[in-house]
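Fibulin-1
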Amino acid sequence: QQCCDCCHLGLRLRSEGKTCESNINLGYPCSHVMLSCCEGGDHFIHPEIKRHPEPLPTVTPEKVSETEDHNEALSISNEAELSNNLPGDDLDECLLYGGELCQHLCINTVGSYKCSCFPEFILQDDGTSCSPDPDRGQVTRLEAEATIPPSASPSQPLLIVSLQEEEDKCKDNGPCKHICNIVEGNVECSCLAGYTIMADGISCEDLDECLTGAHACSRGQLCVNTLGSFYCVNHRVICAEGFILNRRRKCVDVNECVTDRHTCQRREHCVNTMGSFKCLQELSCQPGYELKDGECVDIDECERGTHSCKVNFVCQNTEGSFYCESKQRCMDGFLQDPEGNCVDINECTSLPEPCKPGFNCINTVGSYTCQRNVLTCSRGYHSNEEGTRCIDVDECQTGVHRCGEGQICHNLPGAYRCDCKMGYQYDAFSRSCIDINECWNYPGRLCQHTCENTPGSYHCTCSSGFRLSYDGKHCEDVNECDTSPCSQECANVYGSYQCYCRQGFQLAEDGHSCKDIDECTQSAGILCTFRCVNVPGSYQCACPEQGYTMAANGRTCRDVDECAIGTHNCSAAETCYNIQGSFRCLSFECPSNYRKVSDMRCERISCFNYLDCQNTPVRITYYQLNFQTNIVVPAHIFRIGPSPAYAGDNIILTINKGNEENYFSTRRLNSYTGIVYLQRQVKEPKDFLLDVEMKLWRQGTYTTFLAKIYIFITAHAY
């Protein structure tokens, strides 16, 4: 389906007459199919691909390894050489690395890849980048008079009237990459539609309409930029049903339950799934309903007695709820309270205009009356002697104020104000003047360090290590080192002091005296690789008595190669093999019916019958491996296989001896290569001698090889 959608996108571009260009945002497979369908095979540039010739049938097996030494049957190499080079296992680099290998098109070949370019572009010498073909991109300039149409856009080619000497400046397009123009005798470069002039005034770069928002794609479409233009792609062409393209151009799931695109019924619950949704039957009901036979039915609270109606009320059931109806009715002018009692309605406050203007409303039991207004003054005023207007009452002069002791009364229209002394403020709750806490009201602005409130004022204090300066607000540092408080060295710091000790000593708990530092105890094995010995004011590193010597840095223990310096005790018939911290004396002897062809290899002299030739090793080879106890498991320690290898080879690996504690195991990497690996951690130093047998099946015959591997597990390096 994805292949068809990408091909449909290419056919659509071709039918609309747009340029067929690749876009890395579609990915390599989709972009490749889109170009193939868009170009229709007419202008697609197919690079020459060299293919391997088909192998001719022969009884001789095909050689699949690079080694030409036919005398070798066992080989050991690094882990990087374990790849299988058999035909048919080609790696598609174009599919694996997408658009990172080639600028335009990447075409996979057997064992490699090729880069190609779009029409009107040529491949550069680096084999990966493409540039426009200069033979097909020239711009024709008119030498006769021409008129610029008013509808021409700034990005269209300009037709300029030029003189013969001005024409020479634009000869061969002058210095311009696209269009050369002569404006007032000077060369001016412009660009084709879909391009913009670069900072150098000569080169042109593609205008990304998708990035600048100059495209006409709708909200449900994806804008794809091309060289000099753009095109719009519907989200559904790229994303499957139930998915949408996000800002990062990745197909993400649409939550139909949140976007209300689901079709679930009223009593169903929508659950979002990847690319779709599902509807589940609701198992719970709304308050006032209960689940019965799979449906929510109303609960009759009145019948069950679960209502909350009072004694003077009757319960009336409703759909999903209930209400309480009073047993008795109240007369006009009364209102029933929640207890069922009838209370008088104050029409003077409940009605918007109970009386006409000029009349005063007086409430009565069950009704109200209207009386003509008399002059009523508000609080703080009283009527004058004539009773025609209200005048202010001077509470301070008449003594009806409530100012406390020490307060000053000031009359105001209709009221009065009690003022407090400086440093105090009025408290309306206690109707008295209380002290102002300047330290709380102005934190950090009155004193540099600490502000302490006093009745009607405040004063500043300083922290330990400071003293108050002459202005009474700021604090200045005290030099405590003048009194010699430290046993060794003293450093004055702002507001305090610091005692410190000389090298090899540390400050005691009292912060004043110094004591010797035990570097070995505090370092936890970091200073020395083996053993740390504390000395007054310093430390020394030591190594094991045998097998190691101190390195030049004075901290690391270096292994002594007893075999190289001749301090071993191996006999002349033995071979000295150095290991970490020691050495081993090894003796390599060939069994009967074998002859020694090298220091580490024995070959079989003869075999007696067919079974003997297949089961007894044709070659015995000795190997030595040295590892430390902190090796990470599983660890590949030995690689074995025929050399050279041929198609059809098959091997069987077996550890015949030396693996009684099951520390090691074997595994095949392919039909002709295997490994021996350490599968369990060896916690203590230990020596192993493994007999690893390899049976090689080649052209219907088994051949046996034996590798005797000395494995020395030593303690990790000091």
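thats it. Residues 121 and 134 are 9 Å apart (CA to CA). The longest strand covers residues 701-714. bye
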